[in-house]
């Protein structure tokens, strides 16, 4: 490898890599798509993505194995979620094959930036779909731009596997009960900026959002899903039409049940029943598994396992998930997609 970076301490920052993929949908069809050096997008000033938020994105990672090969984790699931998001916003969906091919091309073209095995780093891929063209009324675009760019990343929450604390938020919601919470659209994240800023200024890693209709149940942990472990060997994660269906979360539900014999449950997580959890964590592509030390809710501060140490079940799940992602453990059928270099 010719590229030298501080691979162990990458954090989660934008870095401009040599090449990205770009494809246009015009006159009713997608073009071939191509790799380009230009990291600027040239779009109409009236693009619906800019004015009315007709845009969607994804996040997935490429992992370097011990042998030096590179692999993707469940990219078909990201492709399908982008298609569901596109349906919700009346955007042109990107076919699964095109999506995966674009990801592979970007990884291959920037392979020197996939962090070495053992550093904890990965190559984060950001697929983005936006409505473009000369439209000013509130209506769907007729032209779309699909791009995939990438950057090497490390920890999203600064603790990594060390627990950090979160703030349960009563004053702000990230999504409406029947809104776009389950879709990966920029508007949800715009709504989370102010509460996120306030939580961070108060010393927390991020906000825990409650269900927007009743404010009695936990929904999301910033840009990740919530899970809790009980003394009865249960893995519980919230179910709601306004949370983003996390691919990491569904992977953990499967591993908890099929590899560790736990009872895997998607159900209500009432904020006044947190005592039943012996451990809790945030999970997502960027977050991986980030243990939740304590949560502040009004004047109450609740600690799950410990504010300083990761719990044993969380650690076991982390090792299994990342073992699969980095190619050290056998993956369930179809979870790993190799990138030919
Ligand atoms: N929830 C939100 C709001 C997110 O932005 C993400 C990130 O993608 C997740 C959950 C985790 O989803 P996934 O595991 O598919 O990355
Ligand atoms: C991801 O985990 O891929 C995300 O999209 C989180 C992010 C918004 C940083």
From TrEMBL:
Gene3D superfamilies: 3.30.470.10, D-amino Acid Aminotransferase, subunit A, domain 2 (3.20.10.10). CDD domains: BCAT_beta_family (cd01557). The lineage of its organism: Bacteria, Bacillati, Bacillota, Bacilli, Lactobacillales. Keywords: Amino-acid biosynthesis, Aminotransferase, Branched-chain amino acid biosynthesis, Pyridoxal phosphate, Transferase. It catalyses: L-leucine + 2-oxoglutarate = 4-methyl-2-oxopentanoate + L-glutamate; L-valine + 2-oxoglutarate = 3-methyl-2-oxobutanoate + L-glutamate; L-isoleucine + 2-oxoglutarate = (S)-3-methyl-2-oxopentanoate + L-glutamate. It comes from Streptococcus hillyeri. The keyword Amino-acid biosynthesis applies. This is Branched-chain-amino-acid aminotransferase. It comes from the Bacteria. The keyword Transferase applies. PANTHER family: AMINO ACID AMINOTRANSFERASE, BRANCHED-CHAIN-AMINO-ACID AMINOTRANSFERASE 3, CHLOROPLASTIC-RELATED. GO terms for biological process: isoleucine biosynthetic process; L-leucine biosynthetic process; L-valine biosynthetic process. Its EC number is 2.6.1.42. Pathway: Amino-acid biosynthesis; L-valine biosynthesis; L-valine from pyruvate: step 4/4; Amino-acid biosynthesis; L-isoleucine biosynthesis; L-isoleucine from 2-oxobutanoate: step 4/4; Amino-acid biosynthesis; L-leucine biosynthesis; L-leucine from 3-methyl-2-oxobutanoate: step 4/4. Belongs to the class-IV pyridoxal-phosphate-dependent aminotransferase family. Its cofactor is pyridoxal 5'-phosphate. GO terms for molecular function: L-isoleucine-2-oxoglutarate transaminase activity; L-leucine-2-oxoglutarate transaminase activity; L-valine-2-oxoglutarate transaminase activity. The modification N6-(pyridoxal phosphate)lysine is found at residue 184.
